[in-house]
Automatic annotation (TrEMBL):
InterPro entries: THOC7/Mft1
GO CC annotation terms, alphabetical: THO complex part of transcription export complex
TM spans (from-to): 119-140
Protein name: Uncharacterized protein
Cell compartment(s), UniProt: Nucleus
Naturally occurring in which organism (per UniProt): Kingdonia uniflora
Coiled coil segments of this chain: 37-111
UniProt GO BP: mRNA export from nucleus; mRNA processing
Keyword field contains Transport: no
Organism lineage string: Eukaryota, Viridiplantae, Streptophyta, Embryophyta, Tracheophyta
Pfam families membership: THOC7 (PF05615)
Length: 142
């Protein structure tokens, strides 16, 4: 075999072939390493994306849990209240009482108005008595 214009022996040829094989193996190793590095980079990016997704899911889960706790607290407050039928009965009774009180108020107002008129009439008569009978108030004081 001729290399750069010089004939090489069998041992040199084997050494050269070994060197080429080593270089070829190193190139394949480098390609494999680069492929592994790219795959690891893709996996890292995927893991980062998964972490972000899981963070969002955790955030949503916390909000959902908070809503459930709030609903449970409201449910407990509602459960402590008396039943609607009982409350409606109380409301009806109070409405009847209000109606009765309004009627009493109207009657009391009429009575008061009548008493005012009667008192006004009494005062008017008291003023007319001396005039009609010619009695002087000065004489009445005696």
């Amino acid at each position: 075999m001729l290399v750069k214009g010089r004939k090489i022996s069998g041992k040199e040829e084997m050494a050269a072939q070994y060197a080429f094989d080593v270089v070829d193996a190193n190139l394949r190793e480098k390609e494999n390493f680069n492929e592994l590095q790219e795959e690891l980079h893709r996996q890292i990016l995927q893991a980062q994306t998964d972490i972000e997704d899981l963070k969002n899911q955790l955030k949503d889960s916390k909000i959902e849990r908070q809503h459930k706790e709030e609903c449970e607290a409201i449910r407990k407050l509602i459960a402590m209240q008396p039943p609607r039928s009982k409350t409606q009965t109380v409301i009806t009774d109070l409405e009847k009482e209000i109606t009765m009180l309004e009627a009493e108020n109207t009657a009391a107002s009429r009575t008061l108005e009548l008493r005012k008129k009667q008192f006004s009439l009494l005062l008017h008569v008291i003023r007319l008595v001396p005039i009609l009978y010619g009695i002087s108030f000065a004489l009445l004081k005696v």
